[in-house]
Specification:
The structure is a single chain. This protein is mainly alpha-helical. The protein has one domain. The protein has four helices and two strands, in the order ααβαβα. It has a two-stranded antiparallel ribbon with strand order 1-2. The structure holds iron/sulfur cluster (SF4). Iron/sulfur cluster binds next to helix 2.
Length: 87
Amino acid sequence: MSKFLTIIQAWGTAMFHTEQQKQLAENRSKICDKCPSLQEVDVKSITGSLVNNFFQCGACGCPIAAKVYTSPDVPKEQKCPQGKWEL
Ligand code: SF4
């Protein structure tokens, strides 16, 4: 599966997930929260308060809210690009 399809699938899982998928995403989020590659994307200054700022992985550019829901079954290069996640 391409990186693009992987993140689309992850968005779907972020919206409709099992408790197990949620737990995995929360564990990954804790790792991302401490990672120096985590970047806040400032969209508020462009849109006013219409859209909130969001966080992305500075290493791959993916939005973290979806990235952490990446399936554990995809190739490891489509997960954390720095190999910081266990699954
Ligand atoms: S996905 Fe990996 S490299 Fe990216 S912010 Fe999270 S821990 Fe850091």
